[in-house]
UniProtKB/TrEMBL annotation:
Protein name: DUF3298 domain-containing protein
UniProt keyword terms in alphabetical order: Signal
Lineage: Bacteria, Pseudomonadati, Bacteroidota, Sphingobacteriia, Sphingobacteriales
Deacetylase PdaC domain mapped to chain residues: 63-158
InterPro entries: DUF3298, PdaC, PdaC/RsiV-like_sf
Length: 275
């Protein structure tokens, strides 16, 4: 399945049809590396921060002047691993964070210029914040959790979390079928934990409180390996109204012993050694 983000961003972003020349990653005003390189995990990486702002300022108030900004905080590995995971960090096919920033800010700048020419009212600042964290790092498996929060106008912003799992030794992204051998059994197990978490009986209808098709429980497209178990993550609007926020469901490895693939089963048996 396509990553959740590639569906959600299509709904929340204003058209990004124009392109501008790409700047290099060493843009002096853009990025700075954290001094604290992460050395506890098997894969060595450093966390890097990035910030850019639009030259067009929103309507000033007596207290402050606001403008559109793009911020990011994300892990940087060696070249081989960076190539493997870049689609999970940059998300829409970009090669680096400069390109991601420029795509977002270009859309706002075009909107701002149109508003100014048309004299159609005040500008309202946008923002996008990307925070990509290493959720699991064993040397064999790597899980990234990319949290994106943004506002591009409207009643409220949007928050999306994208989980991505990799077999580092095999150099590939993991599908759910790489993690479990029987998705039907997984669904049954997950529903049991979901009902317990939501305080629903075994036979109680999901009703209008949840967005499950035909009142049938569904696995999240978004899943991640963690030290404790398999995490299923439903983003805002996937199974509940916006006001209820996202839903995360953690299924302990012990409950999945019958359905885990052999390779992931070894991970589950050695969780005490995971940093």
């Amino acid at each position: 399945m396509q990553k959740v983000n590639k569906v959600v961003f299509g709904l929340c972003l204003i058209g990004l049809s124009s392109c501008i020349a790409c700047s290099s990653d060493n843009k002096s005003s853009a990025a700075k590396s954290s001094e604290n390189e992460q050395i506890l995990d098997t894969l060595t990486y450093k966390m890097q921060s990035f910030k850019e702002i639009s030259p067009y300022f929103a309507v000033p108030s007596e207290e402050q002047v606001d403008t559109t900004k793009f911020t990011a905080y994300y892990p940087v590995f060696d070249e081989e691993i960076n190539t493997l995971v870049k689609e999970s960090i940059y998300l829409d096919g970009e090669e680096n964070m400069v390109q991601v920033s420029e795509s977002f800010l270009t859309a706002f700048n075009e909107y701002a210029e149109d508003q100014i020419v048309a004299e159609s009212g005040p500008l309202h600042a946008w923002f996008r914040d990307i925070s990509c964290q290493v959720l699991l790092n064993t040397g064999k498996f790597l899980t990234l959790q990319n949290s994106i929060s943004e506002y591009t106008g409207g009643a409220h912003g949007i928050q999306v979390v994208v989980l991505s799992n990799y077999d580092v030794q095999e150099k590939k992204e993991l599908a759910l079928t790489d993690i479990v051998s029987d998705t039907v059994k997984l669904k049954s197990i997950a529903e049991k934990f979901f009902r317990e978490q939501e305080n629903l009986s075994e036979t109680e209808s999901f009703g209008k409180a949840y967005f499950f098709d035909n009142d049938n429980f569904a696995l999240a497209d978004n899943f991640g390996l963690t030290k404790e178990g398999l995490l299923l993550y439903y983003n805002v609007y996937e199974i509940k109204p916006y006001a209820d926020g996202p839903t995360s469901l953690l299924i302990p490895y012990a409950a999945l012993s019958e359905v885990l693939t052999e390779r992931v089963g070894l991970l589950a048996k050695n969780t005490s050694n995971i940093n």
